[in-house]
């Protein structure tokens, strides 16, 4: 089971995450988030991470120049895009950048079934699904009916996100059978501050249910 720990804001938290050997960590480059980091800080944190852990940059409606500069400066391996579909001319630019990217899909709070497309958006390597919110972009720690994503999971490399924690991750994995999971607030003691014990228990649950 592929695991991404998102919202890393410090070298200390990166170390806590790395001790559990995740597949990826996420840096949020969005000023409106309590987990926002500057590209320079993400670069410094990345330098001390073990090889093999992907550095994912989470972007929210920025201009493309910001994405390119941040990806280069921070040493990113992958991009996660929150916002409307890429403008047509961006596809050529992301191809030139040479980084895989994660397409984010939102499930409305009142949804009864999956109603979105069953294929990744053009060029995306993975699809991350979370519940839509009128608050900040991202899952906002909101649990939702994860089984709504089960159909999509049969068609794409799906990353399940939004409100996941040690108590609900087992059921979510059993119901959806995703390619991977993404967690942020579910392993925190406060916004932007990771908790070692919550992280450890989350990994234990993911690996226990992800191998069955």
Number of strands: 10
CATH architecture: Alpha-Beta Barrel
Estimate the global geometry from the Cα principal axes.
globular
Write the CATH homologous superfamily. Aldolase class I
Largest pleated sheet: 8 strands, parallel, barrel
Low-confidence stretches: none
Look at the structure and give the CATH class.
Alpha Beta
Order of helices and strands: EHEHEHEHEEHEHEEEH
| Amino-to-carboxy terminus distance | 10 Å
Radius of gyration: 16 Å
List the total number of helices.
7
Give the number of domains. 1
User: Residue-averaged pLDDT, rounded?
Assistant: 89
CATH fold-level assignment: TIM Barrel
Helix proportion range: 25-40%
Look at the helices and sheets and give the structural class: alpha/beta
Order of strands across the main sheet: 1-2-3-4-5-6-7-8
Q: Beta-strand percentage?
A: 15-25%
Protein name: N-(5'-phosphoribosyl)anthranilate isomerase
Keywords: Amino-acid biosynthesis, Aromatic amino acid biosynthesis, Isomerase, Tryptophan biosynthesis
Pfam family, one: PRAI
Catalytic activity: N-(5-phospho-beta-D-ribosyl)anthranilate = 1-(2-carboxyphenylamino)-1-deoxy-D-ribulose 5-phosphate
């Amino acid at each position: 089971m592929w695991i991404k720990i998102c919202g890393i804001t410090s070298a200390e938290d990166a170390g806590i995450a790395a001790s559990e050997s995740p597949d990826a960590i996420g840096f949020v480059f969005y000023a409106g988030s309590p987990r926002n980091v500057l590209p320079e800080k993400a670069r410094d944190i990345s330098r001390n991470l073990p090889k093999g852990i992907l550095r994912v940059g989470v972007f929210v409606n920025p201009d493309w120049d910001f994405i390119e500069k941040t990806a280069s400066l921070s040493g990113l391996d992958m991009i996660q895009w929150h916002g409307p579909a890429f403008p047509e001319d961006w596809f050529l630019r992301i191809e030139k950048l040479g980084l895989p990217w994660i397409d984010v899909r939102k499930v409305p709070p009142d949804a009864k079934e999956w109603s979105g497309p069953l294929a990744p958006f053009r060029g995306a390597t993975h699809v991350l699904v979370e519940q839509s919110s009128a608050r900040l972009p991202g899952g906002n720690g909101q649990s939702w009916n994860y089984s709504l994503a089960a159909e999509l999971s049969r068609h794409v490399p799906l990353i399940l996100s939004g409100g996941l924690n040690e108590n609900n991750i087992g059921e979510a994995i059993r119901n959806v059978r995703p390619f991977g999971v993404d967690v942020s607030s579910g392993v925190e003691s406060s916004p932007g501050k990771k908790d070692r014990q919550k992280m450890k228990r989350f990994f234990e649950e993911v690996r226990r249910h992800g191998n069955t």
